[in-house]
Amino acid sequence: MSNIIESKGLSKTYNPDTIPVHAVNNVDLAVEEGEFTALVGPSGSGKTTLLNLIGGLDYPTGGKVMIEGVDITKMSENKLIDFRLKNIGFVFQAYNLIPVLTASENVEFVMLLQKTSKSQREKRAIELLTEVGLKDKLDKRPSELSGGQQQRVAVARALASKPRFILADEPTANLDSASTENLLDIMAKLNKEDNMTFIFSTHDQRVIDKARRVVTLVDGKIVSDTKK
Amino acid sequence: MYFKLAWRNMWRSRRRTLITVSSIFFAVIFAILMRVAIIGLFDKLISDTVSLSSGYIQVHHSGFWENRSVDSTFEESPKLTALLDHETAVTAWTPRLESFGLASSGDRTKGIMVVGIDPEKENKVSNLSKKIVAGKYLDENDRGIILAEGLALYLKLKVNDTVVLIGQGYEGNMASGKYAVKGIAKIGIPEMNKGMAWLSIAAARNFLSTGARYTSISILINNQNNLDGLKKSIISKTKGEHYEVMTWKEMIPELDQLFQAKMAQNVIMSGVLYLVIAFGIFGTILMMLNERLHEFGILIAIGMKKSLLAVVVVLEMVLMSVAGVVLGSVCIYPLVLYYHLHPIRLTGDMGKSSELYNIEPVMPFSTNLSNFIVQGYVVLLIAVVLSLYAIFKIYKIKAIAAINS
């Protein structure tokens, strides 16, 4: 299978001129299409920074990130925004839905940014929310949903733009056991049935157990990379 | 959905939005009140003054305005009157034959302006018949005279009494005549009320020996904005005919200057109110940027361009401003309409100072919609200009720093 993500010598150093902190240190990582990968490691090991760099949310201080052969570290900020919209889905730890929009509108919003027609947006939003088990919550605002439900809306939103892969930063950190189980089942199903590539950072052993590849980071370096 | 997003965001912080909208609401109300009062006052002053004297636009013989001599008259011209009848900007027009003279009764004499009028046409321009407080208005070939109330009082004349007029007629002729007072008209402008009299044009021609001549044609227009355009149009259509066309601003510049000075004062006062609005809106922008930085970071992360984000934020500020402007305008309109129909009568010192300025001491509010629209434009402009700061800050946002904020 071809690599969908590839990082070479990827580094991110904070305060390079004073007290340098190497959040990500010379990381080489290749992720193939359809992988279900967990980035694990202690707090401060660089998991989130690595996800941010892969997702084009931050620029590295060294090395490069290739997404399907395109070096995104050379892109301007505006082009990166467009690139993210078309290629990358994000799921954040704190859900980060737009509080004034309903579940359905939150999912539609990404498609609106892609200039998808209203009818197609509505149709796909219903499909995606049905897929994550929230068909009966279409018109609920985030404040009317539980944490688990909000995170499932966030997954539906991440899928809405038909991305090449989804980056999830500690997606289960704020969820109870049942919601975690439920979310993992949805993500695993999407991975298995739609061949959707997932990379997530996590501390959660239940998530690690579900992952088919576990990459462990310590002090910004990959110390182990295990495929199950 | 961007509109929906902006609208709902506006109501996220309900209390803050209400405070901002309220500050705009009250400032708009005060700004409108100040403006409609001053414009209403001057609209009336200008209308009263020009309708009875110069007209908004006047056509007269070239050079008449400089010497105001009855020798600078012109003959009735069907071509000119047909032209005025076909000008859409002209609401009404009236010919006049005017001259200075002396009015005398008993042992009292006073220098006055005698105006010969076509009673029917004059009425359409100056509403003179409505100003009659005693006696009757003139008929077409009337031999009677209408005196302004102050003049009648000075000369101690009542309806049916006789007044003697003396003046200089056409081409050096002596002008004199005795006229029965047919009516007494109350004129709002104090100076005019003390020194004007009206004859039918036939009687005036007879008095001044002018034959079928006028000194001027005074024109009433439907919109002050048409003033210069109409003047140009008449000039171009009467080229080579020895007419001079002047606007009231040229004939009575001191009135225009007084109006401009009052408007300048109004602009300064409004500026202070707008400053209050500006601070209110700016405070809201600062708080909004601070509170929603994290959310802006997320929106940028999921693919929303900063330009689009800026549009939504500006739209939010514009919506808030429009809400304040529309609410303020709608709420104050009934009061403005009331005082338009029932003008405030200025009493005490204000009344006296009005008379000093030769202004009738009443203040009708102007209901001209432009007074309301101007407020809307100004507040929207303030909102848009201040939103530039929000746009600047949005363009400076680093997605990851904003998400971590």
Give the topology.
The complex is a heterodimer of chains A (228) and B (405).
Chain A: E1 3-14, E2 21-32, E3 36-40, H1 47-54, E4 62-67, E5 70-71, H2 77-87, E6 88-91, H3 103-113, H4 118-131, H5 147-160, E7 165-169, H6 177-194, E8 197-201, H7 205-210, E9 213-218, E10 221-227
Parallel strand pairs in A: 3-8, 3-9, 6-7, 7-8
Antiparallel strand pairs in A: 1-2, 1-4, 4-5, 9-10
Helix pairs in contact in A: 3-4, 3-5, 4-5, 5-6
Chain B: H1 2-10, H2 14-52, E1 57-61, H3 64-67, E2 74-75, H4 78-86, E3 90-105, E4 108-117, H5 119-126, E5 132-135, E6 145-148, H6 149-155, E7 162-168, E8 174-185, H7 190-193, E9 196-200, H8 201-208, E10 213-214, E11 216-221, H9 227-237, E12 243-247, H10 248-251, H11 253-291, H12 293-301, H13 306-341, E13 344-345, H14 348-356, E14 362-363, H15 369-396, H16 399-403
Helix pairs in contact in B: 1-13, 2-11, 2-13, 2-15, 11-15, 13-15
Distance between the termini of chain B: 26 Å
* Element string of chain B (H = helix, E = strand): HHEHEHEEHEEHEEHEHEEHEHHHHEHEHH
Q: Which blocks of ≥5 consecutive residues of chain A have pLDDT under 50? A: none
Shape of chain A: globular
Spatial order of the strands in the main sheet of chain B?
3-4-9-6-8-7
**Radius of gyration computed on alpha carbons of chain B:** 29 Å
Give the overall average pLDDT of chain B. Answer: 88
Beta strand count of chain B: 14
Biggest sheet of chain B: strands, sense, closure? 6 strands, mixed, barrel
**Radius of gyration over C-alpha positions of chain A, nearest whole angstrom:** 17 Å
pLDDT < 50 runs, ≥5 residues of chain B: none
- Measured as a percent range, the helix fraction of chain B is 55-70%
Whole-number average pLDDT of chain A? Answer: 89
Number of domains of chain B: 2
Oligomer: heterodimer
Number of helices of chain A: 7
